[in-house]
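Structure (tokenized):
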């Protein structure tokens, strides 16, 4: 299943399975010392970032390529929901018409197909950035136990790409999410959409993994990039 279909398919469940993403969005907002009145949110999903903002905003451009996720996003005064793909230069051509004071992206840019190209388009919008990007040590023990390579880019890879375009501050934060049973844990991976387009394992390997997973929590690694 593609990343888009996976998020669209699970959109109604996302609110119940996005505990970490909500924490990440809150953290990103807490790190923002300015109070921008015109905001772009790339990969806005159902609105974790918008819901965390605690100052008045005139314009909020909420962009996502999943109509189903976007449908759940708040539509208060000033919110403009835009269906768009941050892998596609056409989105950025369209966004250039807006005056944007800060560009946010929370828990989404790890799915950029070509992060270098996406960063370059973002840079051309000429506004300071606040990003939180999931990185390779997310689900570290899952991948180690299953003996498969990590899904996401490393913090070093993302940092070196971002350094080409932004004069930013970098901070890596690790989160843990505990579960009562390993089965619940793997259900979470499926429903939260965090596994992206890749089905991590086939049925037999998944059964082995559930049996052998040594800890009762999932690990998340998030790189915060702020200007
Ligand atoms: C893990 S969710 C995060 C949503 C929200 N920012 C939050 O913090 O809860 C990732 C979101 O990125 C969107 N997304 C992934 N790839 C995208 C792309 N290429 N263009 C636009 N949106 C994308 C997905 O549809 C999904 O809504």
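Design, position by position:
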């Amino acid at each position: 299943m593609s990343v888009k279909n996976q998020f669209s398919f699970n959109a109604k469940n996302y609110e119940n399975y996005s505990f970490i993403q909500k924490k990440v969005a809150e953290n990103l907002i807490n790190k923002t010392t300015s109070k921008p009145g015109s905001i772009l949110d790339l990969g806005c999903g159902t609105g974790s970032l918008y819901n965390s903002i605690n100052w008045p905003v005139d314009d909020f451009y909420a962009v996502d390529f999943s109509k189903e996720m976007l449908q759940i996003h708040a539509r208060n005064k000033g919110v403009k929901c835009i269906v768009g793909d941050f892998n596609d230069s056409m989105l950025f051509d369209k966004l250039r018409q807006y005056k944007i004071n800060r560009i946010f992206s929370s828990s989404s840019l790890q799915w950029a197909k070509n992060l270098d190209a996406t960063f370059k388009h973002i840079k051309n919008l000429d506004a300071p950035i606040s990003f939180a990007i999931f990185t390779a040590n997310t689900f570290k023990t899952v991948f180690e136990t299953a003996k498969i390579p990590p899904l996401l880019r490393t913090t070093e890879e993302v940092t070196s790409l971002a350094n080409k375009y932004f004069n930013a501050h970098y901070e890596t934060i690790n989160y843990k999410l505990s579960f009562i049973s390993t089965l619940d844990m793997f259900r979470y991976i499926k429903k939260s959409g965090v596994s992206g387009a890749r089905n991590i394992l086939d049925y037999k390997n998944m059964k082995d993994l559930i049996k052998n997973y040594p800890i009762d929590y999932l690990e998340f690694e998030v790189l915060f990039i702020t200007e």
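Reviewer-requested clarification: Residues 84 and 168 are 26 Å apart (CA to CA). The chain has a mean pLDDT of 92.
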